[in-house]
Write a structure and sequence with these properties.
This protein is α+β, with helices and mostly antiparallel strands. The chain is 55% helix and 11% strand. It is elongated. It binds adenosine-5'-triphosphate (ATP) and magnesium ion. Magnesium ion binds next to loops. Magnesium ion (MG) binds next to loops.
């Protein structure tokens, strides 16, 4: 089968031009280059994808250096790993040296050595991700599909390449469910059985790697579907026994997707995942996933604020009271509580803080207060804070009202 038509339809002009140059330069070196992995899968199903992965039976770094000269692209090479990345305006091109991988023990990182295209495809997660397309001029566009990935795309199946796949690398358990739900496919029968058998192997995977796969899940279009399925299969609970993938979380994820800007999405979802956990259980999940410091703190803020919500559940709080109850919390922790808490006074106050109160500033600053004759020092700080509260509560409106009020505070 030849995919020239799909390639030309799929890739932007600039990428096609670069690909032609890659093909020519590889021919000159006498080395074979291929599209591999997700991009091939997406060529066939016509799904947008601008992460172009290439594999070369030869030397990726050398090819990339030649490209940098000829195509004037920016190249970032990692000679130690035999990989290079070309960044272009609207797509990326990764080139890797074809490799063999051997897993010394489950969950360990594999031992890597140079290999053929076949070796490189055999190390991959699923048949639908283990196809390649030739870039060589004599058979440009030809599909290479030793594990029948195209048949599985047609039959809508996620299938591993050998029975030890999930125990070698249990992150594939999370990946299998991500593709199953993204594509609306099913797990092939034996793959499904081995997946369930190997769920405990998740214990062999480092926190960073599990977190990375969770991030990929949370960046999907419908993360709630994946989380629900992970809950049904006991996969979430294997990561932390208190995690649940039931109706509550799916409903909240759906809400986040409708409300928030995409860059925040994974972080808010992490905060939602721990929302119904106690401080101690959340702490152990944060450790298990080796969460980055800042997000770990936001997650802790989220739970601390949740515990304080009753202080906000009063019908007639003044804006200044709301402000000073909330201003030290991370914004994301407040946003998470808006999504996670029940409608009511507290929730409306959180929204009021996010939409209005956090932007309220006094018209006068410290320097201007000094010009009025109030000396620098702790008292001036106090006056600014009282002025800010008065402004929040609408007790002062104009600059001259602020001046009058500040002076009266100074003289008393
Ligand atoms: P996506 O559309 O989600 O980016 P992708 O197929 O490009 O899909 P990546 O996570 O970018 O997925 O990985 C690129 C390729 O590397 C995959 O297609 C797969 O062949 C291979 N791969 C990634 N992770 C693993 C893994 N844990 N085990 C085996 N192969 C993997
Ligand atoms: Mg990719």
């Amino acid at each position: 089968m030849n995919l020239v038509g799909q390639i030309e339809q799929h890739l932007p002009q600039q990428a096609l031009e670069l690909i032609k140059i890659v093909s020519r330069e590889a021919d000159k070196l006498g080395q074979k280059v291929y599209f591999v992995g997700g991009i091939v899968r997406d060529f066939i199903i016509g799904y947008p994808n601008l992460d172009i992965d290439l594999v070369i039976e030869g030397d990726a770094v050398r090819l990339a250096q030649n490209l940098a000269e000829v195509a004037q692209a920016k190249v970032l090479a990692h000679p130690r790993f035999g990989t290079a990345k070309l960044s272009c305006s609207n797509f990326t091109l990764d080139i890797a040296t074809a490799r063999r991988e051997i897993y010394a023990r489950p969950g360990a990182l594999p031992t890597v050595s140079p290999g053929t295209l076949e070796d490189d495809l055999l190390r991959r997660d699923f048949s639908i991700n283990a196809m390649a397309v030739s870039l060589a001029s004599n058979n440009y566009g030809e599909l290479i599909d030793p594990y029948h990935g195209k048949d599985d795309l047609e039959r809508q199946l996620i299938r591993i390449l050998h029975p030890k796949s999930f125990s070698d690398d249990a992150t594939r358990i999370l990946r299998a469910i991500r593709y199953e739900q993204r594509l609306g496919f099913e797990l092939e029968t034996q793959t499904g059985e081995l997946l369930e058998r190997d769920v405990p192997m998740l214990d062999t995977i480092s926190g960073d790697r599990i977190r990375h796969e969770l991030e990929l899940i949370l960046k999907e279009k419908y993360p709630e579907r994946i989380i629900k399925r992970l809950g049904e299969l006991g996969i979430l609970q294997r990561i932390n026994p208190f995690l649940e993938g039931n109706g509550w979380i799916t409903e909240k994820f759906e809400k986040v997707r409708q409300l928030s800007k995409p860059p925040y999405l994974p972080s808010i979802c992490f905060c939602l995942l721990i929302y119904r956990l106690g401080q101690k259980e959340a702490g152990s999940l944060i450790l298990r996933l080796n969460m980055p410091k800042k997000l770990a703190r936001t997650m802790q803020h989220t739970l601390r604020l949740k515990a304080q919500l009753s202080l906000l559940d009063k019908p007639s709080l003044k804006p200044s009271e709301i402000y000073y109850l909330l201003h030290e919390y991370h914004l994301l922790a407040i946003q998470t509580n808006v999504i996670a808490s029940k409608p009511g006074a507290a929730c409306s106050y959180l929204e009021l803080f996010l939409d209005k109160l956090r932007y309220v500033k006094t018209l006068l600053n410290g320097e201007e207060l000094q010009r009025l004759g109030i000396p620098a020092g702790p008292k001036l700080g106090e006056i600014l804070k009282i002025l800010h509260k008065a402004r929040l509560d609408g007790e002062v409106k104009t600059k001259s009202e602020e001046e009058k009020f500040a002076l009266s505070l100074h003289l008393n």
